[in-house]
Amino acid sequence: MGTEIYLDGSGNPDSDWSEILNDGWNRELVLSVTKKFPELMLQPDSEQRPFKVSFFLHQEASFKVIPQLETELAKCKLNIKLIYSSGIDLDIVPLNSDKGQAMQFLRQKWKFAAERTVVCGDSGNDIALFAVGNERGIIVGNARPELLQWHSEYPADHRYLAKNFCAGGIIEGLQFFGFLE
Fold first, then answer.
1. Contacts of 114 (CB under 8 A, 6+ apart)
2. Residue 37 CB partners (closer than 8 Å, separation 6+)
3. pTM of the predicted model, to two decimals?
4. Mean pLDDT of 91-104
5. Taking the CA of residue 149 as centre, how many other CA atoms within 13 Å lie in the half-sphere pointing to its CB?
6. Cα 122 to the center of its chain, rounded Å
7. Which of 34-42's residues contact partners 24+ apart within 8 Å by CB, and which partners?
8. Cα(first)–Cα(last) distance of the chain, in Å?
9. What mean pLDDT, rounded, does the chain reach?
10. Domains in the chain and their CATH numbers?
11. What is the residue-wise DSSP string for the chain?
12. What is the mean pLDDT of residues 123-141?
């Protein structure tokens, strides 16, 4: 989700990234507002993070609940966004967080060139990886419909749609871009 960055194997989150995410974030207020929506089922503790509140929300209810939830959360003046993916997962995260922004933060911190950076994904919560810059992107063959739809609506030469699934699709994409022979 781009809500955590750990460096050097320390188990401690990167303080610079955490500071960026903390601006306008209030986890307790998010939890308080979401209690008004019985359709939201809080995911297990293993899925919760300091900068991410995750719920299960059935797709048929999502069409009604998400706009209402966005309205209620907007009243709180928080810098947040809602990410709905896989027809069931709803994540509420800081506005400045997503995989794309986290990748950009690290790429700039480590001074990696965009053309030497590869991002890979398979679902809607990976769209931000592909949307932020000109990094080489690989969408694996078993990608979820929401990512495939986005890819067809926003084609790019620096993005590759693999035929193979999972790691096989990543290897296929790395070969396509010339990183592997």
1. 107, 133, 134, 135
2. 65, 68, 69
3. 0.80
4. 93
5. 7
6. 11
7. 34/69, 34/92, 36/72, 37/65, 37/68, 37/69, 39/65, 40/65, 40/69, 40/90
8. 31
9. 95
10. 15-94 (3.90.1070.10), 99-176 (3.40.50.1000)
11. --S--B-TT-SPBPHHHHHHHHTT--HHHHHHHHTT-TT-EEPPGGG-BTTBEEEE--HHHHHHHHHHHHHHHHTTT--EEEEEETTTEEEEEETT-SHHHHHHHHHHHHT--GGG-EEEE-SGGGHHHHHSSS-EEEE-TT--HHHHHHHHHS--TTEEE-SS-HHHHHHHHHHHTTS--
12. 94
**d(C-alpha 42, C-alpha 31), whole Å:** 9
User: Going by DSSP bridges, is the β-strand pair 80-85/53-56 parallel, antiparallel, or unpaired?
Assistant: unpaired
Beta bridge partners of 160: 138
Q: Give the total residue count for the chain.
A: 181
Euclidean distance between CA atoms 169 and 174, whole angstroms: 9
pLDDT tens profile 58-91: 999 999 999 999 999 999 999 999 999 889 999 9
| Residue listed under structure tokens 């990748």 | 103
Residue with the two structure tokens 């509140």: 53
Residue with tokens 């769209």: 127
For residue 153, which amino acid is it? E
